[in-house]
Amino acid sequence: MLLHKYTTEEAIENIYNSSNILASKYNVLNKKLAIIFKGGRQYLYHDVKKSDYDVFENADSQGKILNSHIKNYKVEKIEGVVDVTPILEQIELLKNK
């Protein structure tokens, strides 16, 4: 479930209350979707249609839509692990508002 959304002309950044997905960034111009998972893994999905991204963003379960809509796109694993501590802290603050 979407907790926080930040939008610019080029990108949409979101934080989620999800069992596995912490955050995403969708680049509107090049249609790339980066997703950060709880374990710190990050994947980049290419040529994601805005309509599929909208379904992902607004879903009650991002994981279900990831499996049904987003995993059909070309994917690239980003090397390294993201420090998810600041994201988890922000999620807790947002949930307690």
Q: What is the ordering of alpha helices and beta strands?
A: EEEEEHHEH
Strand count, sense and closure of the main sheet? 6 strands, antiparallel
**Count of discrete structural domains:** 1
Biggest sheet strand line-up: 1-2-3-4-5-6
**Radius of gyration, rounded?**
13 Å
Considering DSSP H and I runs of 4 or more, what fraction of the residues is helical?
25-40%
Given the structure, what is the number of helices?
Answer: 3
β-strand percent reads: 25-35%
Overall pLDDT: 95
Structural class: alpha+beta
The unreliable regions are: none
How many β-strand stretches? 6
Span between termini: 15 Å
Structure description:
With 97 residues, the protein is of the alpha+beta class. It has one domain. The chain has three helices and six strands. It has helices at residues 50-58, 62-68, 85-95, and strands at residues 2-7, 11-16, 21-27, 32-37, 42-45, 75-78. A six-stranded antiparallel sheet has the order 1-2-3-4-5-6, with helices on both faces. Helix 1 runs antiparallel to helix 2. The two termini are 15 Å apart.
What is this entry, summarized?
With 97 residues, the chain is an alpha+beta fold. The protein is built from 3 helices and 6 strands; from the N terminus they run βββββααβα.
Q: What distinguishing features does this structure have?
A:
97 residues, alpha+beta, 6-stranded antiparallel sheet, 3 helices
Ordered list of secondary-structure elements with their pairings:
Blueprint: E1 2-7, E2 11-16, E3 21-27, E4 32-37, E5 42-45, H1 50-58, H2 62-68, E6 75-78, H3 85-95
Antiparallel strand pairs: 1-2, 2-3, 3-4, 4-5, 5-6
Helix pairs in contact: 1-2
